[in-house]
Amino acid sequence: MLLSSKNKKKRGNFPLFFLAPALISVTAVLVFPIAYALGLSFFEWNLMNEANRVFIFFKNYVSVFNDPQFWKSFLLQIGFIFIAIPIELIIGFFVSILMNRKFKGAGVLRSLLLLPVFILPVLSGLTWSFMLQPEYGTINYILSLLGFKQIAWLAYPGTAYTAVILQDIWRMWPFMFIILYAGISGMPKEFEEAATIDGAGFWQRVFYIIIPYLKPTIITAILLRTIDALRIFSEVYVMTGGGPGNSTLLLSLYINKQAFEYFNIGYASAMSIILIVVTLILTIILVRGNIEIDGDKA
């Protein structure tokens, strides 16, 4: 009996042995940074005066919610998500339907379509800033050939914000495409064939067969892109630096500005924690009731 009890105890510890590396890694790269940022958010701490660190509890959060620039940056970030991601989703969706057909060179074309998503964000931002340059940029050159005036795209708030969104759509729609293509290529052909025999047109097949079948895939794609868009930084930073007049100062850029230009680490940490909470809320809204885990709704 004693031997049997010891064996059971050993077996009970056995899964922990295999889980330990993953648990240690998650704690090191995820749990610890969040816990550290949460701790810093309760302090008034300027790196230029490192010795003067004062515990102020929730005052940083109160200051953040009373900061007009925080709300402006937050709305810019939300606007960015609500404009860019639906456009990327629509382009990716219809291209995945097109590429699901068999034709010569489809494999090569699929590979070429994915190229933008592999470009580094900072390189993409630099490329677009050169393309949008008012005097020698490619886009203004094309516009001049068509008889239009040159535009200083990144010098005006409206056009700069539009340029940042266009750059993101160009780089990230292939991400939507590859996820949706993986989903649609796994759909049984009988579904569409039966609908076609029953006389369903293209849009009827899209709305009544393809979209319902791809719903979990679409939600997953939106979720992954939303999380990615909430932490967008380098491409916007190299294109506009948040300007002109803070018109492209997204929340992620404002956090960086507070931390590494004003050195307000406690204040920036409070904004980071708020951004994490917003991400969690959006994740729960998207996942709850839309994605099945082991046959059960999440």
TrEMBL record:
Pfam families: BPD_transp_1
Localization per Swiss-Prot or TrEMBL: Cell membrane
Protein topology in the membrane: Multi-pass membrane protein
Domain ABC transmembrane type-1, chain residue ranges per copy: 74-286
Regions crossing the membrane: 12-38, 74-99, 111-132, 138-156, 168-186, 206-224, 236-255, 267-287
Matches recorded under InterPro entries: MetI-like, MetI-like_sf
Record's keyword terms, sorted: Cell membrane, Membrane, Transmembrane, Transmembrane helix, Transport
Coiled-coil intervals: none
Family: Belongs to the binding-protein-dependent transport system permease family.
Protein name: Sugar ABC transporter permease
Native source species: Marinitoga aeolica
